[in-house]
Amino acid sequence: MGRIWNFSAGPAAMPEGVLRELGADLLDLExxxxxxLEHSHRQPPFDRVLAGALDCCRRLGExxxxxxxxxxxxxxxxQFALIPLNxxxxxxxxxxxxxxxxxxxxxxxxxxxxxxARIAVPFEGKRCAYDHVPSDAECPASTGAAYMHYCSNNTVxxxxxxxxxxCADGGVLINDASxxxxxxxxxxxxxxxxxxxxxxxxxxxxxxxxxxxRDLLQRAxxxxxxxxxxxxxxxxxxxxxxxxxxxxxxxxxxxxxxxREGGVAEMERRTHARARLVQHAIDASDGxxxxxxxxACRSLINASFRLPTAQLDDRFWxxxxxxxxxxxxxxxxxxGIRASMYNSCPLSAVEALVAFxxxxxxxxx
Length: 365
Ligand SMILES: Cc1ncc(COP(=O)(O)O)c(C=O)c1O
Description:
Blueprint lengths: L4 E2 L9 H12 L16 H18 L5 E7 L2 H12 L5 E3 L5 H13 L4 E3 L26 E5 L1 E2 L4 E2 L11 E5 L14 E7 L9 E7 H5 L11 H6 L9 H17 L1 H21 L6 E2 L10 E5 L3 H13 L2 E2 L10 E4 L6 H18 L1
């Protein structure tokens, strides 16, 4: 069987060219006669991989030298705990607008990580079924908050901030960019920390990229075990112990691919082109397909929508899978349909999806 169109939310589709490179690297990394999985993490071949990954990320994201890039084992869920441990003093305050299932989890983890702190929730999206992200007026920062943690693209309900929220004076913005990293430019001056798990735009699950302002590392509010400490990861150059070498290598290959294709500007152009096609198919369906999010903040990346009944939702993704379009079942807590279109998703996949949507409506509408 050949490859089929994959709209999985993550782990997600990767470019075939990158998969072939990785396949070759498994047998022989750049003429060393040893594969990437077999190389020591302290020898020159892996030194080059790590340096290459850092360099490509910096160029791709136009990340200034004010910010350190870390590769930390564990997904974004681990960062939900590590961020408050590293940045929130005992008795301090942090703002967490709740815009989706992932921010709700981040709030629980932050409260467990620093029980003496106040985790304020200036916007409670659950009350409106997570159908929009807040305007600045709906999301007031708490006086004295150390940071405002937000999720720029909400993978489950398919909403996206058009611009970041405002944090308190003297605080910093922290963004969970797991489902949109390197798909549009970031205002680095406004962000103290941006993080993403790797399995959507950067390859392999189980590792996160943390891009953090260097001065924040020096101000860590407490002593932590080394693997929990961003400052320790920075000091050790992301090699406190044996790092996830293959995940770092795959991230490097993904970043090289994005740079070759035209960088973040081109990723952003493609993101808009894909979203236009799907959003048009939804909007032209006379209400057969209903988006979960308000039009003004619909995600350009995760198209989340419903059909008139849950039975039709089920039939839609099952029939689509039979037609070679996979990964469309909505998140288990939200239901409906979700098409995840990360940087690797080709326009032809979206054209196939849109053709399927029209035909499904014709035969079931
Ligand atoms: C926005 C967002 N944050 C966090 C996560 C959790 O990532 P992980 O499973 O790597 O912990 C996800 C996973 O889909 C996500 O989409």
